[in-house]
Amino acid sequence: MTNANATTGGLNPLFHPAAYYASPGAVLGDRSLSTPEKRIILSSWASDMYAVESHPALREIPGMDHTIRLADILAALRKLDDDDDPPPRGGASMRLRRPAFDAGADDEGRPPDRRTLIDRSA
Q1: What is the mean pLDDT of residues 1-30?
Q2: Would 100 disulfide with which of 28, 47, 89, 109, CB 3.0-4.6 Å?
Q3: Are residues 104 and 112 in contact, defined by beta-carbon separation less than 8 angstroms?
């Protein structure tokens, strides 16, 4: 990892946040930053651009001497939204119930039985 010069002089933390903050929690705790500024810093850290090769759950931020877990960054972003619920699990499809378009559908929206269709056509 390359370390950027940590001497920031009079630069704003938004220009080089890694020199000011060692963790997502430190970003959240800085009262001098607005919520949108905190979101900018945390979102930039979550970017795939900083993903550690072969370890996509880690982020290597230039100027920091350690890696940061993506889960910690995303948890901090959720706290900005006052959302303590874990993110929804992905990958599983949901089966949605179709509305009852068939005139012969029963009260629960199920299509009529095939035998009923055959009997009606006779």
Answers
A1: 68
A2: 109
A3: yes
Place of tokens 């900083």: 50
Q: Which helix or strand (DSSP H or E) is residue 121 part of?
A: helix 114-121
Q: Which of 37-51, 77-91, 95-109 has the lowest mean pLDDT?
A: 95-109
What pTM does this model have? 0.57
Query: What value does the mean pLDDT of the chain take?
Result: 74
Cα torsion 65, 78, 16, 20: sign: negative
Q: Greater confidence, 15 or 65?
A: 65
Joined together, the tokens standing for residue 55 give 């370890």
Cα distance between residue 113 and residue 104, in whole Å = 9
Q: Measured between alpha carbons, how far is residue 8 from residues 14, 19, 37, 61, 97 in Å?
A: 11, 7, 18, 16, 58
Residues 78 and 71: their CA atoms lie apart, in Å, by: 10
